[in-house]
Amino acid sequence: MTTPTIITVAITGALPRKKDNPAVPVTPAEQIESTHEAFEAGASLVHVHVRAPDESPSSDPELFARVQEGVRKHCPGMIIQFSTGGRGREQSARGAMLALRPDMASLATGSVNFPASIYENPPDFVEGLAKTMLELDIKPEIEVFDVAMLYNAVQLAKKGLLRTPLHVQFVLGIQNALPARRSVFDFLRSELRELMPDATWVAAGTGRFQWEVNQWCLETGGHCRTGLEDNVKFDPTRLAASNAELVKKIADVCEQYGRHVASPAEARQLLGLAPVAAIH
Ligand code: MG
Fold this sequence. Notes:
- Helices cover 36% and strands 19% of the residues.
- By secondary structure, the protein is of the alpha/beta class.
- The protein has one domain: Alpha-Beta Barrel (TIM Barrel), CATH 3.20.20.70.
- Strands 2-3-6-7-10-11-12-13 form an 8-stranded parallel beta barrel, surrounded by 8 helices.
- Helix 1 (28-41) runs parallel beside helix 7.
- The longest helix is centred in the first third of the chain and has 14 residues, at 28-41.
- The radius of gyration is 17 Å and the shape is globular.
- The site of magnesium ion has 7 residues, from loops.
């Protein structure tokens, strides 16, 4: 028996532009189509940022609603996760779309430097988002951009602001934050296992580290995240043609690691989310 791996596709993000790679989907229609292709290739979870018509990051709930509706219609059972990330967005607006009650939303549990900015998540803001997610029954994906965020998440869970088991994402390879080093990856996994033994986890490698980190996750029992948000190229010599291509690259090697691609139903069960039948 192989073990399932949930493949997350981060389709758009806040940074890549069409000029970086024409395959980056930015309008809701492009995002739905790109998600559908990635779903067919094996992705069971989609991480969503939305963009204004000029491609700048947006917090407009209407745009999130259109993507959510399209993905629900075309990708039965797929887990929808909204980003509450900060790049180019006002703090006060970052949780506005949670009222749409996606299955999941990202939650960074601390602040960190990014390549040219501060990703600011003050304690009261993090607690506010956590409370909203708790009230609306949205499962957070804890985004760990720096080591302290892991311990902060454990504290939030102890305070009753996060339901357990947690689902945690380790983000490796962002300049000024955690490097994509195997020793760091192993340390984070071991700390999580000790502090929150029942937690599920995934790691994301950015840029040229994406594929390497995907392989580390397959090898060590983690889930996988890929997509153009983190990496507009997977091969330094050429651009990735699509989100689906990045997903397929993982799906194609799962067997070599004794893994199989989780179906939406399996992914929902692993993350303790409502079954497919309950949402359609
Ligand atoms: Mg994101």
